[in-house]
Structure formats: structure tokens, C-alpha cells
Write a structure and sequence with these properties.
- It is a multi-pass membrane protein.
- It is found in: Cell membrane.
- The chain has about 400 residues and is mainly alpha-helical.
- It has 2 domains: about 90 residues, no CATH class; about 300 residues, no CATH class.
- Helices cover about 70% and strands about 5% of the residues.
- The longest helix is centred in the C-terminal third of the chain and has 45 residues.
Amino acid sequence: METSIIVVTQAFGVHETEVDITNQSIALNYAPSGKTPYSLHRVVRSWSQNYAGLALLHRLVAAVAAGEMDRDEAQQTLADIRHKPKPFPGWLTTVAAGLFSATFVVFIGGGVVGAGVAFLSMMLMMTVVDLLGRARIPEFFSIMAGGFIATMIALVLYTLDVDLAPSLVVAGGIMLLLPSGRFVSAVQDAINGFPVTAAGRFVSAFLVFAALIAGIVAATVFASMLGVRELDLAQEPFADYPVWLLGILVFAAAIWNSIFEQSEWRLLLPTAVVSLAGFAVYVGAEFIGVGSRLTPAIAAVAIGALGRYVALRMGAPQLVVAVPGILFLLPGLTIFRSMYKIAMDTGEMMEGVIGLFNAAVVIMAIAAGVVLGDTIARPFTTAFQANERRRIGRR
């Protein structure tokens, strides 16, 4: 984002600018030598998923950099992008969220009943989160409510002896609430030399993470007060499926998540293919015994590199392809199991804290892997980007 702003300002003759971006604001400082400096500050009051708009904005920046547009044309194009309808209606994104949750539950070892419960609870949860967002409730509390609903439904059905694994259902339910995109952007900004921007995004991401944890803890404590029996977390889930079936689940999950993130129609299949390729790398790294902590990071590097190449070929930023592609790597089950131990068993509190720390480390490793993959792929996409700019300039 910072690079895009600098490219646009320089294309229009505004040099010597500094940009700082957080999750809620953009600050642009213009300090020409020997002249009066200027500062512009824009606060973002609300936001929503719109990867299609992000891809259109990427193409606009490319066109400006190629000299195809003057400032008036660029402003009009930006206005058109802001008012362009999203590719998918709201009800379809809610259904896609439910399908993703159900697919992920099956992927990590859940049964058909658990997948069905995850599907319904996810749709309810996302509806509530959306309504709270429309009512201008702070994001912290809406995410907390989502985590509470996902956990409470699973635990109540568990105490009613419904045949499901509640920990798997909750893990599938919280995946779309994890601030994976923000972690990737924050790590990318930190590595590329934008510490203020990275710090703001890290704070925002960790607040979402804390809200999710608070919702899980509140639900487990409340369920205990209602007499819900404690879970047996000693039993590890096991997905006894062939690799090809797991690959299909990963492919489908990437499509559902891309729809939820409002990606473009033409990016759905390429995103799923990149995710499937990352899963193949994951299986290969696991086969040679790399280790449970390093394996997701290696797969994330592959997804980051392929995501950059595919995204640029399709006229979109890497994030649009990479973020939906990495969700199957995130340790949602570890997060729930750790928080359950912290909330319900003081004797295992330290083990829960360690598990939560390990989950955070894995998430950061995955985010860093995506950024590393993007960096590795740059020499292979530089020529392509130059050709693309010349092609735009000739139009």
C-alpha cells in the first residue's frame, strides 16, 4: 500500500513524500526542500471485505505508473471503483463462510455431523457479526461475539450428546475471524522498512486475536456454569482420508474463502490452484520429516511465491491470492484447545499458555513465509511487470 501511494504521487510529480498507514488511517507528509511542508491525514471509519476492489485499485496504480491517466481520469476511475458493486451478494458470502467452515472441519478430522453444525453456526455467527458491524459496534466486541457463538453452540450440542467433536467445530468456526491478512500485511511492512505502519497493523491484528480468545473463554466459562461437562482434550483428532481427498477439500475451501473475501470471479480457480500447490508442498515437507512448526512456513513460502506470480498475471496484488490460500495452514484447533485449558483447568494453565504462544508463533511464521515467497518471486516477475506497464502505456 505504501509503495502504491508513493508510485502514484511521484507519477503526478509530487516527490519527497513519506507515508504511514495503520489499519484505520493514512498519513501523507510532503516536505519539499526549501518549501512549506504539507500533511494529509485520512481516517477510515469502516471497512469490509472487497478483494475485487483491491484488484481494481492495483490495476489503477499500474495505469498511473505507466502514464496512461492524468489526475482527473485517475480520480474518476477511483470514484467508479468505490461505487462498483461487490461481485457476490451478502447472502452468498454468508453461505460461502458456512461452506468453508464445514470443509475445514472435515479437513482436520471432523465428521459429517460436525461439518453440518459448523456450517449452520458459522452462518449464524457471521450474520451476528455483520449486524453488529452495521450498528457501529466496535470490531473487538463483534469478533468476541462471533467467538462466543461458535464455542457456545458446539459445547451445548456436546452436552446434549450430539455426535460431534466440539473442539473441531469451534476451530472451523474461528478460522475466518483470524486476522490472517493483517498479520501478512504487518510482517510485509516490517520487513520492507515501514515500522510505524507495521506496528499499527500488529496492534490491530492482536486486538482481533484477543477478542476472539475472549469470546472463546467467555463461552467456555458460561457453558460450565450451565453444567456442560468438560471436554476430553487428550484425544487428538485424526483425519483418516487419502491425500487426494484432502487436496480436494483444500481446493474447495480456498474457493469458499475467496467468495467470502469478495474476490473476482476470474481469480477463484487460480487462488484454489495456488492453495492446492501449497498443500502439495506441505505434504512433501511433512513426508520428509521437516517438523510440525516448520512445515506450515515452508508451504506458506510456496503459496507466497506462486501467489505473487499468479496474482500479477491476473492484474491483482499478491495478497488477494495468498491470504485465501494459507488458511488451511492456520492452527485454529490449537488456539481453541489452549484457551479451553486456560479457562477450565487451572492445573493446565501453563500448558495452555504455551500452546497459545506456539499458535501465535506458527501464525507469524506463516505470515513471514508468505512475505519470503513474495520476495523470492520478485526476480521472476520484474520483467513481466515491466512488460505489463509498457502494454498499458501503449493503449
